[in-house]
């Protein structure tokens, strides 16, 4: 059954966008730099939700800010690493280090997708499994059966934030990724979402006070994939943008597999829209890449996707095209949500939609640079390589 949603662009702007914002598109190199910049500037609060977080460098920075009197709160996900017990121990060490240094850290509940029939589990069960060195356990690797807290957000002083697809784990900083820096009234929505997320993850309630100030003239909407109000959900925004596109669609995807989105892309091509798609080709024994099936569906419809040229060092794959980027004629959507059914509808994802012309232009230039300099018509993965992405 097709999902019905409002495609009237005038009503979309009046109902879903907040005015009074400043937006800046950020490429791979700029995301973490901007995160560090706003963290260092924090006066009273730093709120972070990161799917994966095992960087001691960033943990040290947060501990320093906590010692300066800044209230630092972090939410991370228990299922954020494929890896070995060693990787889990490193993440556990970072979490304990943060707690010992005054940072409030919460792990998202382990919630089965069949949430109404199964009781909620606690993260303690998984952590005890790891601590007992049961490296062959699949409990913490079988992510597909659980809702993920997959967002990547750094929000400071209730007034400015970076929203992106960049994790804080060792391999993540090598990926091709994207995000936005935002100041303005939409930060109130972002802070309210964090307040809800922090409490849902077991954190102590705190006094949530909207305090964002007008910072510019851009219209921005906060997108949440597990939000029950469909008009501002991640899926509705993505579907709307593709359905309303008249001239061009640019989509750069770590994962593109949502059946309805694929249908809408094909519909757009059939009505004369130029559809440009870049896909990540990485795959391994532990990771079955759905992009290959999607590519065949697109090709049959006359859409020829291009594949990111992955980087290698000796026999190790070192990076992904990790972007979750959609650009149409007058809309930019970027954030943590993959273009999959789980990414658009189930996981806790955070993204931004904006009509800011400068942000759209810079994002389009970034897309075209990747397209022209780092893609090919066929995927090229070296034989017998190790898998070192994140």
Main beta sheet: 15 strands, mixed
> Low-confidence stretches at least 5 residues in length (pLDDT < 50)?
1-14, 116-141, 385-390
Task: Count structural domains.
Answer: 1
* Strand composition percent: 15-25%
Tell me roughly what share of residues is in helical segments. Answer: 25-40%
Report on the structure:
- The longest helix has 17 residues, at 357-373.
- The protein has helices at 9-16, 28-41, 56-67, 85-100, 123-131, 186-200, 234-244, 259-270, 291-300, 341-345, 357-373, and strands at 18-27, 45-50, 71-76, 104-107, 111-112, 146-147, 152-156, 160-164, 178-184, 218-224, 248-253, 274-279, 306-308, 312-313, 316-317, 324-328, 332-335, 350-354, 375-376, 386-387.
- The protein is α+β, with helices and mostly antiparallel strands.
- Helix 7 (234-244) packs parallel to helix 8 (259-270).
- It has one domain (9-387): Endonuclease, Chain A (2-Layer Sandwich), CATH 3.30.870.10.
- Helix 8 links the parallel strand 11 and strand 12.
């Amino acid at each position: 059954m097709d999902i019905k949603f409002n495609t009237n662009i005038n009503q979309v702007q009046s109902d879903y966008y907040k005015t009074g914002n400043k937006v800046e598109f950020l490429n791979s190199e700029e995301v973490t730099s901007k995160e560090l910049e706003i963290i260092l500037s924090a006066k009273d609060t730093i709120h972070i939700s990161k799917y994966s977080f095992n960087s001691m460098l960033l943990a040290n920075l947060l501990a320093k800010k906590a010692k300066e009197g800044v209230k630092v709160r972090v939410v991370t996900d228990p299922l954020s690493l494929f890896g070995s017990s060693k990787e889990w121990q490193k993440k556990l060490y970072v979490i304990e280090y943060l707690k010992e240094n005054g940072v409030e850290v919460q792990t998202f509940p382990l919630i089965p997708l069949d949430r109404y029939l199964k009781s909620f589990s606690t993260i303690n069960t998984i952590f005890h499994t790891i601590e007992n060195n049961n490296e062959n356990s699949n409990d913490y690797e079988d992510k597909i059966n659980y809702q993920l807290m997959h967002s990547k957000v750094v929000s400071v002083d209730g007034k400015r934030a970076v929203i992106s697809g960049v994790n804080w784990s060792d391999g993540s900083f090598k990926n091709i990724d994207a995000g936005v820096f935002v100041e303005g009234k939409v930060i109130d929505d972002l802070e309210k979402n964090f307040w809800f997320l922090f409490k849902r993850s077991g954190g102590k309630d705190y006094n949530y006070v909207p305090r964002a100030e007008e910072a510019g003239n851009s219209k921005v909407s906060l997108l949440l994939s597990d939000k029950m109000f469909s008009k501002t959900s991640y899926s509705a925004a993505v579907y709307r943008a593709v359905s309303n596109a008249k001239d061009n669609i640019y989509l750069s995807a770590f994962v593109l597999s949502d059946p309805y989105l694929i249908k809408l892309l094909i519909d757009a091509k059939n009505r004369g829209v130029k559809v440009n798609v870049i896909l990540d080709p990485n795959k391994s024994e532990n990771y079955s890449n759905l992009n290959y099936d999607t590519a065949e569906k697109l090709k049959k419809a006359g859409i020829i996707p291009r594949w990111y040229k992955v980087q290698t060092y000796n026999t190790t794959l070192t990076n992904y095209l990790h972007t979750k980027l959609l650009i149409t004629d007058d809309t930019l959507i970027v954030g943590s949500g993959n273009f999959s059914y789980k990414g658009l509808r189930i996981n806790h994802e955070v993204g931004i939609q904006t009509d800011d012309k400068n942000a759209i232009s810079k994002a389009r230039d970034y897309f075209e640079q990747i397209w022209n300099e780092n893609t090919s018509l066929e995927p090229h993965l070296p034989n017998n390589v190790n898998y070192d992405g994140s």
